[in-house]
Amino acid sequence: MDEVVIIDEIACENGDGIIAKVTINRPDKLNALNQDVVKSLKDMCKWAEENDSVRCVIITGAKPNPPPEGKRAKPHAFVAGADITEFAGKNSTEIRELFRDNAIEAIWNLSKPTIAMVDGFALGGGCEVACSCDIRVASTRAIFGTPEIKLGLIPGYGGSQRLVHLVGYGRAMEMMMTGNNLSAEDAYRMGLANHLCEPEELEAKAMELAETIASKSMNTMKVAKKTIRAALDNGITDGVEIEAVAFASLFDTEDQEIGVQAFLTRTEPEWKHR
Ligand code: COA
Known about the structure:
CATH topology of the largest domain: 2-enoyl-CoA Hydratase, Chain A, domain 1
Strand order of the largest sheet: 1-2-3-5-7-10
Number of strands: 10
Distance between the termini: 41 Å
Strand content: 15-25%
CATH superfamily of the largest domain: 2-enoyl-CoA Hydratase, Chain A, domain 1
Radius of gyration: 20 Å
Structural class: alpha/beta
Order of helices and strands: EEHEEHHEEHEEHHEHEHHHH
Bound molecules: coenzyme A
């Protein structure tokens, strides 16, 4: 059986570390998140967190397989949601257990930078995977949406909360209340997608961003990510204080000295990631 999550370890251009390209691989089911995928994504997160060489994680969906003779091709998908077939017959206790300690939270809690590379449907749980990444790069054929309301449901992987931060209260309300899909252009316009490109340029754009991020000090990157996240949980007064403490703490790190010296001597910094 094919792996439901494939990890490609791509060496960084500067020879320091790897970019992990993670492909959710159930193209015949539009990469829907069944329990196998959820478990594999959680394992991937543990691996990425513990592997010091991982500088950035790109998450994407597998491209459609060629259709069998006489059948129509399946559409492109990032992830078309949680696997709805696994919902049938479940009660609230079973679902609470399945959704506890889930893969989307594991992606969100990674200290490493994450990029969602979205080509095709990013619906329901797929939109939530994308929203749990730090940055979203979308192709012009990407389609975002939270259609759960049409199933008598709401997002269950934190989508309602993360969407409010990404697109604002009113837009999140409209997405969740109507269940309507958003075109890639609309998603880009409202800040859900950071970048919009032609499908054939998508991978290059995601890799360009990943390389830029991967070339920085990973220690500083972790502090940056944690500090930006603090803005979601704190008011501005506390948030500014958190940043001030984090900023000062970097002056006890080797990489701050390396970065400043490299600027002063007009050389490239060789990070120790400490
Ligand atoms: N869970 C389980 N299976 C799914 C799925 C999901 N979320 N989304 C798509 N699939 C499966 C379909 O059942 C179909 O399987 P089959 O070929 O074995 O019958 C296959 O993926 C292809 O999907 P299909 O519906 O035939 O493609 P389409 O081009 O006609 O429609 C969508 C594409 C995305 C509009 C449609 O698949 C859809 O609405 N999916 C569900 C989206 C959703 O509600 N997500 C939130 C879940 S909480």
